[in-house]
Task: inverse folding
């Protein structure tokens, strides 16, 4: 099993790499078209600003290999900014177009409802929607907490595509959205202790 | 708190180039200890054949060879011999209120069941944090006598010592060393316990390295009085009777009571950091809320006197050894930092000008800025300093050697 | 509320002081960090506490080593003075960086850093000492250098410039285990719009329960953990029992 961790110049690549290796997969941090095409699964990580992220993807010619991987049905997992880049657009600083792999927009969290940036551990629950892939469904979601660090959230137009959400002070934060072979995770599984490692392991073994 | 000092008549200024090489028998070539950052310019220090200073050797010895349990038994025996249960004092602890004296006094009372009288020779000009620290200590249950010398005489002496000895702290040191002796005689308390023995801990004459006490005549003059006893100041125009309370009691009077000055550093492994921990936990000791002291990186030592920085600044001028050097050298010996770290600290902080209280120092000693500079420079020896672009630089700093 | 363990590093050792002074060598930081992780800590905070003192920047190896076995957020502070320094810290495996001196010298740097890496990544550490006049002043250099900044004003300003999180250290309480400085926390918590992490003074579980009701997002522990006075496990069990919002073990 070969995992390609996409390097577009931003983010905590090493952390993702460490976690993937820890759960027993062969991972490579790469910006090469070839390696992406040869990988079994793809992770698009990210910490940083949306605009810079898009710029990095475009400058490194990564949009096309990602797009063709999606078309081929290869599992793609976006994490945090990496997840947001897969949506249609973000309003961070100025409105910027995203990859548009999923019908969703990235919007600022409402500052009257939640402290921004939203950082910390949040009890995350699964939505009862039918399209959730088995590798997520299989996890133990009882009192499952994950680590979130973000100021913007992903808003899907079709509620069926929202797989999981976190509950913080009676406010629901998008946790995971996805469609078919694409999964976008707002929180950081690589920083969420044992729960996060289990999620990554499931992705590697069962997605 | 800053206080307004009255105007007083100081003796006429007489600044002359000082021969510190001759006076302290300083080696003409500066050599640094291979283990710490102290140099052979520290008076009385000796570097051995391997280039290691006596203080480092002593530290090795005390960290490995001394049986501290045995020493503790000796201390218990000493206390047993002197302890009184009738409410009379049985030991004098000279006490600034700093972490070290707080440790000694609190420990003697609470662990060894003694009834200490803490004795303080007042600082020239109090620092708020030092004042609070000693108040805290006293309120843990210790008696204290604080003696404040006649401020006019003390300022004159301080000025003269600054000019002629290159150390404004000499009069204070007279008091710290002789006043406890005076009280020992007055109250008939034969036992005095100081903190560490600076000669062995910081480098100097090692003759007392294996002795619990020092003698009250020759050692005082050589180790603490820069070779100049208090009575010698009559030669500089001070009336003899003004000096009375700086003087040590006569040897006969001391002998009659049987006064002995002991060092806690003989009985307990002396690690300043541990004293800090002890004082924080037991006597409400606080580090300086102003942050580090000028001329060094630490913020837990010498918090009593606003003029303190000038003592260390002058040591830097006279010997090239400032406060950061002394602090860092001791921390190397305690295993807290490496020699490289110590060098970095010395380079960064040693000899830093104590600007915060400069105006108060000038006011206290009745000197102008120009006079101050003249005095400082009169104590700089040519073998240590060179003038580059009108600024004095050490010829052989530790980071270049 | 997050339970964060703070490890002060003087390379290669984990050290601990009282009021950020008198640094005692405690042991191997990576081993301690791993133990706290396995016990269920929510976050690890490394502070190279002599980086600016010695003008060096030397904990990247430690970050790399730690990040291999620890899968909770790791924040790194000490000696960070440029975007480049941030880049290297993140690249080594840190998730957030904590800045103090450079933020005070040039608050615009907070904005630049937040712009480059996202504000959630930029923690501003504030070292606070209560002055005799009753005002808390901000310090740099591990509580050694005093600045003219009023802590409450400075926190407000740092957040305005883009700080994503504030770590508020009460130097007066740090390492004393005598309880948090509640007056200071109240003042800062009252004005802050980003997560506030408090540090300095935790001594017993009651101290944590007391602050859990306040507007804070995390507590930082060092003394009680390093000296084995409390364990992460017992802290979490006790807080959970009180019904507090705590990540389970």
Result:
């Amino acid at each position: 099993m070969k995992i390609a961790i996409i390097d577009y110049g931003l983010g905590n690549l090493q952390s993702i790499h460490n976690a993937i290796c820890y759960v027993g997969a062969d991972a490579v941090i790469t910006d090469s078209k070839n390696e992406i095409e040869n990988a079994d699964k793809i992770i698009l990580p990210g910490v940083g600003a949306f605009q810079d992220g898009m710029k990095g993807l475009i400058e490194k010619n990564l949009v096309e290999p990602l797009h063709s991987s999606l078309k081929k049905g290869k599992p793609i997992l976006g994490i945090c900014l990496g997840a947001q880049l897969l949506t249609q657009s973000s309003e961070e600083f100025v409105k910027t177009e995203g990859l548009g792999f999923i019908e969703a927009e990235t919007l600022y969290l409402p500052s009257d409802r939640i402290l921004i940036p939203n950082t910390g551990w949040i009890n995350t629950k699964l939505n009862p929607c039918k399209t959730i892939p088995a590798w997520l469904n299989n996890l133990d979601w009882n009192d499952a907490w994950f680590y979130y660090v973000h100021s913007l959230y992903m808003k899907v137009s079709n509620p069926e595509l929202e797989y999981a959400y976190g509950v913080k002070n009676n406010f629901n934060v998008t946790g995971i959205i996805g469609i078919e072979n694409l999964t976008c995770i707002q929180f950081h599984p690589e920083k969420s202790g044992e729960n996060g490692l289990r999620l990554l392991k499931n992705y590697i073994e069962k997605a | 708190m800053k206080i307004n000092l009255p105007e007083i008549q100081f003796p006429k200024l007489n600044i002359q180039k000082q021969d510190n090489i001759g006076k302290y028998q300083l080696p003409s070539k500066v050599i640094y200890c291979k283990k710490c950052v102290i140099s052979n310019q520290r008076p009385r220090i000796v570097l051995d054949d391997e280039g290691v200073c006596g203080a480092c050797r002593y530290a090795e010895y005390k960290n490995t060879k001394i049986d501290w349990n045995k020493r503790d038994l000796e201390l218990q025996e000493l206390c047993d011999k002197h302890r009184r249960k009738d409410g009379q004092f049985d030991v004098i602890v000279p006490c600034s209120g700093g972490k070290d004296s707080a440790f000694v006094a609190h420990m003697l009372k609470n662990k060894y069941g003694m009834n200490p009288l803490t004795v303080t020779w007042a600082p020239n000009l109090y620092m708020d944090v030092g004042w609070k620290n000693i108040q805290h200590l006293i309120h843990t249950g210790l008696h204290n006598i604080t003696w404040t010398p006649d401020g006019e005489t003390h300022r004159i002496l301080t000025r003269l010592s600054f000019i002629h000895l290159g150390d404004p702290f000499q009069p204070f040191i007279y008091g710290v060393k002789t006043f406890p002796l005076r009280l020992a005689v007055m109250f008939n308390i034969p036992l005095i316990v100081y903190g560490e023995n600076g000669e062995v801990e910081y480098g100097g004459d090692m003759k007392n390295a294996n002795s619990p006490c020092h003698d009250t005549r020759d050692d005082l003059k050589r180790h603490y009085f820069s070779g100049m006893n208090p009575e010698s100041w009559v030669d500089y125009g001070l009336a003899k009777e003004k000096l009375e309370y700086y003087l040590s009691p006569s040897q006969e009077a001391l002998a009659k009571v049987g006064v002995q000055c002991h060092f806690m550093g003989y009985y307990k492994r002396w690690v300043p950091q541990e004293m800090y921990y002890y004082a924080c936990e037991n006597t409400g000791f606080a580090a300086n809320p102003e942050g580090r002291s000028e001329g060094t990186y630490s913020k837990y030592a010498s918090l009593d006197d606003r003029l303190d920085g000038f003592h260390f600044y002058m040591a830097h001028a006279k010997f090239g050894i400032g406060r950061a050097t002394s602090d860092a050298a001791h921390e190397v010996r305690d295993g807290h930092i490496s020699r490289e770290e110590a060098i970095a600290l010395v380079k960064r902080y040693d000899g830093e000008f104590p600007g915060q209280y400069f105006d108060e120092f000038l006011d206290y000693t009745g000197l102008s800025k120009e006079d101050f500079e003249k005095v400082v420079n009169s104590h700089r020896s040519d073998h240590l300093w060179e003038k580059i672009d009108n600024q004095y630089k050490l010829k052989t700093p530790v980071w270049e050697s | 509320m997050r339970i964060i363990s703070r490890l002060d590093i003087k390379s290669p050792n984990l050290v601990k002081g009282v009021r950020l002074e008198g640094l005692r060598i405690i042991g191997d930081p990576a081993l301690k960090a791993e133990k706290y992780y396995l016990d269920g800590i929510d976050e690890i905070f490394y502070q190279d506490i002599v980086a600016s003192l010695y003008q060096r920047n030397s904990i990247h190896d430690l970050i790399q080593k730690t990040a291999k076995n620890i899968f909770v957020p790791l924040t790194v502070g000490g000696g960070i003075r440029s975007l480049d320094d941030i880049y290297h810290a993140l690249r080594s495996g840190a998730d957030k960086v904590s800045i103090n001196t450079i933020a005070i010298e040039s608050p615009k740097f907070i904005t630049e850093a937040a712009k480059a890496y996202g504000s959630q990544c930029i923690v501003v550490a504030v070292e606070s000492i209560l002055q005799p006049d009753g005002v808390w002043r901000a310090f740099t250099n591990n509580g050694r250098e005093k600045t003219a900044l009023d802590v409450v004003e400075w926190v407000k300003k740092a957040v305005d410039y883009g700080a994503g999180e504030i770590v508020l250290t009460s130097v007066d309480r740090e390492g004393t285990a005598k309880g948090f400085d509640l007056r200071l926390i109240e003042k800062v918590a009252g004005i802050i719009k980003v997560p506030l992490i408090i540090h300095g003074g935790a001594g017993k579980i009651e101290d944590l329960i007391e602050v859990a009701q306040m507007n804070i997002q995390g507590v930082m522990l060092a003394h009680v953990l390093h000296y084995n006075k409390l364990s992460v496990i017992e802290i979490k069990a006790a807080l959970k029992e009180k019904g507090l919002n705590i990540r389970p073990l």
In short: Chain C touches chain B through 24 residues (CB under 8 Å). Chain C is about 35% helix and 30% strand. The mean pLDDT of chain C is 93. The two ends of chain C are 14 Å apart (CA to CA).
